[in-house]
Amino acid sequence: MKKIALIILVSLSFISCGNEKKTEEVVKEEKVVENKYSVIIDAVYEKNDSLLFIYEKNGAFLFDKVKGISVKGSPLAQQITFDFPVGEKVDNIGITMSFNKDQKNLVVKSITIKNGEKTIISPNDNYLTYFQAGDGFSWDPNTSMYILDHTKQYPPSFMGSEQLKALLQD
Q1: What's the pLDDT tens digit per position in 48-57?
Q2: Which residues in 94-106 are b (16+ Cβ under 10 Å) and which e?
Q3: What is the 3-state composition of the chain as percent helix, strand, coil, each rounded to the nearest 5?
Q4: Which pLDDT value is given to residue 75?
Q5: Residue 161 near residue 131, CB atoms below 8 Å
């Protein structure tokens, strides 16, 4: 597990009654930064489905570390949370949003990305700034839903954009 600690030392000087100068070092603040990335998707999956998450590290997607998650169908929005392995630095994210060929529509309300307590992308951000939709998606402006096309080479997926990669570098 990789942790980065930031410790700020403050040097305090005192002059005693006998004009003796004393110096003390005091730990002012300790902050531990640990790579603990999570993706939270707020979406409506009308049918049972599965999502697949992959991440890029050091310029390569780690296909041997791909993880999936199941979603129970519901007409109501639900939060789907996926946690990447603790301690792993994430440089980019890919999400396969649907494998169920009977899932014809999808409503994605938001995508949030966190590293521990730090929010990288909030539910209020436009997730399409940070993710590019693959060719398995088309937008229906009348219903405000994605229409899913499972006949393409790859299932409907989002891939992190250059803007997401830049945010993940910070």
Answers
A1: 999 999 999 9
A2: bbbbbebeebeeb
A3: 10, 55, 40
A4: 97
A5: yes
